[in-house]
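Q: Here's a chain of 86 amino acids. Please give me its 3D structure as tokens.
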Amino acid sequence: MKVQESPASSSSASRSVLILAVAAAVLSLVALLITLVLYAMSVTPWPGLIAIGLYGLPIALIFLLIFVVLSLRERRRRAASAHTER
């Protein structure tokens, strides 16, 4: 038996994933910028800051790919339901 998602829940899930992707990308870019400024000032940055900058962008990319897959599934579902309603 297939569980049907309501359009509001799938839309809110994709919106949440998109917000996570943007937040991870912005946080990562800010961490990279701070790391570069600290290196320019000859200060050793906190290793956690380097890790955030290093792993944040790939995580954001993964979230964006998940968003694309969710959006494609939602569009196909809408197209199939519109086709069957005719």
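Q: Can you summarize the key feature?
A: The two ends are 25 Å apart (CA to CA).
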